[in-house]
Design a protein that fits this description.
Elements: H1 2-18, H2 21-48, H3 69-104, H4 108-114, H5 120-128
Amino acid sequence: MTADGTDAHARRKERAKGGLWGPVLANLGLGVPASVPLYLVWWLLTEYMPMDCKSVEDLTKPGLTNCNYTTLDHAGPIMFLLAVTGVFTLALVVVIDVVLPLRRGRRLAAWLGAAVLIPVPFAICLALA
């Protein structure tokens, strides 16, 4: 009886340590606040980068067809917000996917492997928009 009870307890403990539900749900939850910097990167790549001009002085040059003053005006604050929210999100990812699992003795590979799910909420919102 002792051997069966000990084996069952060890299996239950191993299953609790090695389960994938915790990392998957935690990283999907991280994807919700990570949607902000991901959206800012998406805006910079789709609105700001394709423009022919990169400053207000370029607006006066002839022959530039893809120049938008509003996009130029918003680019600075967007980059600042991206830096602030990006640092905050990276700190959350490091704490939740590295520090906490290491302190609790859990497998780091499962947590870092599930980190690829962080952009999923943003991708779903982008697909639905």
